[in-house]
Specification:
The complex is a heterodimer of chains A (234) and B (347). With 234 residues, chain A is mostly helical. Chain A contains twelve helices and five strands.
């Protein structure tokens, strides 16, 4: 049988996912669980997506969109801000809604789909002393827990109509648009919005996570996708 | 799809449009930046008026460390016992480790079931914010080249070789382009010897002492000069996950430019240069690399993969640190090993 690296990596990933389930099984339920294992990695991920509670769906989708199109590693603090952006503001502009912030930023990110994303401490944070208060946050990067997750979320397989998890299919153009709007919404926010979280945090977030550079990049990516004959919106 | 609108947004975007050049300079890696300064301190012969502002190379070690953390020792043993790897280490050739393009899988519709739900809920509750990251990060490709790297590092520590490496990473904007690759390699190479340093110092002077950004062409020339220096120790050049270098924007695309570089380097026929590329065999990559490689390594040439999975499952199921699994009956443990490895094998 022909097997590729990616296939083998995905086999290991599948085994890993199943072990994650099995390791919590009491002796009495091991066999039953074994009989019900999903057949493929796709099926494994589909189960996880179905497990996301309905009220958390938008939250999870936004998280996936950001992770798919991010142009640099996303840090916990920055991504948590994106999740506090109101995209349906009355003025038609995405706006940071400070009351939507979570006290625990990690929890904000992990609450809806903890097994598909992971937070890694890469110890690569900003060394600028002005941001000492937030250095703990800086080194925590958010990423998909495996490359196959991103592949799955953006694949045409997930876009097939009549699948109950099609909602989570990531359209790149939409995702870039969301990111551009989110960055802009945060950048254009008045400073009052940041007063409760400390004076330095806005500049910190801009330095570390989103700037006009990011806005421009996402707008450009979006435009490229729209023009490209191979783009998802052909 | 919601559109960007609002006057504020347009004004803001206009401002950014005026700054593109600035943007490129500040967000993309340049050869002349802060980190180079610290690297030059490691150089044996500091030069007066030396590159004081050079380089912000990508940090290959960031990825290397991450890959090592998730590396399972047994994953790739079958590969390294093989003769191909030994041959590559002793002869100057290109080693291309590739997989097969993943077929579109037709997953079966799985009906939600309560056992799975409750187990998953348990899994979530117990993992909490502590993300279970062992062995689920980038699994195989990085672990292969991480193993190569550790192996070569042993040679280097013995003073018999130099190793330079670069990981492409779709998650890191600084690990996706030709200049990222070359800058990183130059930064790793120039500390090898005085002649290496001189090549870089020359480049620095030729670019108004680092105030002008070098072009890709001059970076490439610089790299070739360093690799071609006579009488140097063997150099192991490892380029990992080439398929994570984007093939999208630009003519030629970043990936095409990297492939061209690999082709040119192999074309130099340097006896002391051992190049290893790992990637998926995307058509564009295969077309360039296949003719250059006497013996491309594909996983399906190898045996022992199933054993690796069996070993991995056994190591978890029989682990002393698994509080619940420890209480399983032995026959259930063995059934889990058997079932998971067989099912994985059939995927």
């Amino acid at each position: 049988m022909l097997v590729s690296y990616i296939q083998l990596a995905n086999r290991f990933r599948w085994v890993y996912c199943q072990l994650e389930i099995l390791r919590h099984c009491l002796p009495s339920s091991v066999r039953g669980t074994l009989d019900e294992l999903p057949e493929s990695l796709d099926a494994t991920y589909e189960r996880v997506l179905r497990e996301i509670k309905k009220p958390n769906r938008d939250h999870a989708l936004r998280l996936f969109q950001c992770l798919v199109v991010a142009i640099r590693p996303l840090r916990v603090a920055g991504l948590a801000e994106v999740l506090a952006v109101d995209f349906d503001d009355a003025e038609g502009m995405a706006k940071l809604n400070s009351s939507w912030r979570w006290e625990d930023q990690e929890q904000a990110l992990l609450s809806s789909c903890s097994s598909l994303i992971s937070i890694v401490d890469d110890g690569d944070g900003d060394d600028d002393s002005d941001y000492d208060d937030h250095r703990d946050h800086d080194s925590r990067a958010v990423q998909f827990s495996h490359f196959s997750v991103k592949e799955f979320l953006t694949s045409p397989r997930l876009a097939t109509p009549n699948r109950d998890v099609t909602y989570y299919h990531i359209d790149l153009e939409d995702a870039h648009s969301i990111m551009a709007q989110a960055c802009l919404g945060i950048l254009l926010q008045s400073d009052d919005c940041f007063e409760h979280t400390g004076a330095g945090i806005k500049s910190h977030i801009i330095q570390q996570h989103m700037s006009y550079v990011d806005v421009k990049a996402h707008v450009q990516f979006g435009q490229c996708l729209r023009k490209s004959p191979h783009g998802p919106t052909q | 799809m919601t559109q960007l609108d609002g006057q504020d947004a347009k004004t803001a975007l206009q401002q950014t449009a005026d700054d593109v050049v600035q943007v490129k300079r500040s967000t993309f890696p340049s050869l002349f930046g802060a980190e180079f300064l610290s690297l030059t301190h490691r150089c044996r012969k500091p030069v007066v008026g030396e590159p004081s502002q050079m380089a912000l190379p990508s940090r290959p070690s960031t990825n290397h460390n991450i890959a090592c953390r998730t590396h399972h020792k047994r994953t790739a043993t079958w590969f390294f016992q093989g003769s191909i790897f030994k041959e590559w280490k002793t002869t100057g050739s290109l080693l291309w480790i590739h997989g097969k393009r993943m077929p579109v899988s037709h997953s079966h519709q799985i009906h939600s079931d309560s056992i799975f739900s409750s187990q998953l809920a348990l899994a979530k509750a117990s993992s909490g914010s502590q993300i279970i990251d062992y062995f689920c990060g980038s699994l195989l490709m990085p672990s292969i080249s991480s193993t190569i790297i550790q192996d070569i590092e042993a040679l280097c520590e013995a003073g018999n070789a130099s190793m330079i490496y670069f990981y492409f990473d779709f998650r890191d904007a600084n690990k996706q382009d030709l200049d990222d690759l070359i800058c990183s390699l130059l930064a790793q190479l120039f500390t090898c010897s005085d002649p290496h340093y001189d090549v870089l110092a020359h480049l620095y002077k030729a670019h108004r002492n680092g105030t002008k950004q070098p072009s890709d062409d001059s970076l490439t020339r610089c790299l070739k000069q360093m690799l071609s220096i006579q009488g140097q120790r063997p150099i192991y050049l490892i380029v990992d996950a080439l398929d994570e270098c984007p093939d999208s924007a630009g003519i030629p695309s970043p990936r095409e430019r990297v492939l061209l570089l690999v082709k040119e380097l192999v074309g130099l026929n340097l006896p002391n240069l051992h190049t290893c590329v790992t990637s998926r065999p995307e058509i564009g990559i295969r077309d360039v690399l296949h003719p250059l490689t006497p013996c491309p390594v594909s996983l399906h040439d190898q045996s022992g993969q199933k054993k690796d999975i069996v070993d991995y499952v056994r190591s978890v199921v029989y682990s002393d640190s698994e509080p619940i699994m420890k209480r399983w009956r032995t026959e259930d443990k063995d059934l889990v090993i058997k079932t998971l490895s067989e099912r994985a094998d059939g995927m």
